Amino acid sequence: MRLVFIGPPGAGKGTQCKRLVELLNIPHLSTGEMLRAVKKQDSALSRWVASHIDSGKLAPDHLVMRIVAQKLASDECENGALFDGFPRTLIQAQLLDDHLAETGLVLDMALELKVKEEELIQRILKRAQVDGRADDNYETIRERLNVFNTQTAPLTEYYASQGKLETVDGMQSPDKVFEDIRACVARHQRT
Ligand code: AP5
Ligand code: MG
Asked: What residue ranges in 97-150 does DSSP mark as E strands?
């Protein structure tokens, strides 16, 4: 199964993907994690990537698609993948569709996690006390939310028009959210 997770910062994409990895036995492809790994290197590219993600702006579409395409080419992605935080723009969604079509693969489902803004901010500020992610501060969270609302939220219509969209209430407990996601997965799983 190939599944795209759409949700604002702090919605629980990473939390739920970790659980789904075990259920579906397919790899978790988080573009945020991939870009943070690039950021740790010492190069002109890594400083450029850092300047984007540390301010809450999106990394360029073609760069992200290139990184994802490299992962998709590996054997571990043969039976599917969980895309966490990718695509994040309509251009990325089209690039992914084109890439999958070229390689004879399909996307099965897009899962939207819905959570209220006040809750998102609380979750991320709480996580900031333990994780120390450079983009987990109030000012950058506001920018990430703004970027989500303007550039990423329109993807729900894109996937709804393909009949692939499912929406889950992310305000519930992690266990309940997972239960709902499992039901959605069961509806879209090809046998
Ligand atoms: P990314 O790493 O994807 O971050 P994000 O989208 O801002 O989301 P988070 O990782 O903060 O939240 P999450 O939804 O994973 O929630 P989590 O499970 O951790 O992206 C970072 C940056 O990289 C972007 O801003 C951009 O610059 C760049 N980037 C990434 N992808 C890109 C792309 N495709 N194109 C261009 N640029 C890209 O949960 C959050 C907290 O809440 C945790 O502490 C968790 O324990 C808790 N929690 C989870 N679920 C619940 C629940 N149900 N109830 C209570 N608490 C919960
Ligand atoms: Mg995450």
From this structure: 109-114
**pLDDT tens track for 148-180:** 999 999 999 999 999 999 999 999 999 999 999
Q: Which residues contact 75 (CB under 8 A, 6 or more apart)?
A: none
**Quick check: CB of 11 below 6 Å from ligand 1?**
yes
Q: Is the pLDDT of residue 86 over 90?
A: yes
Q: Which of 5, 13, 86, 133 to mutate to test the pocket of ligand 1 (most atoms within 8 A of CB)?
A: 13
Domain interval for residue 172: 2-25+81-188
CA of 177 to the centre of ligand 1 (A): 15
Residue 142 lies in a domain: yes
80 Cβ inside 6 Å of ligand 1: no
CATH number assigned to the domain comprising residue 94: 3.40.50.300
pLDDT band at 191; cut points 50, 70, 90:
low
Atom of ligand 1 nearest to the CA of 8: 6
pTM above 0.90, yes or no: yes
Q: How far apart are CA 27 and CA 42, in angstroms?
A: 27
pLDDT higher than 80, residue 107: yes
Hey, which residues are catalytic here? 13, 88, 127, 133, 144
101 vs 124: CA distance, rounded Å: 36
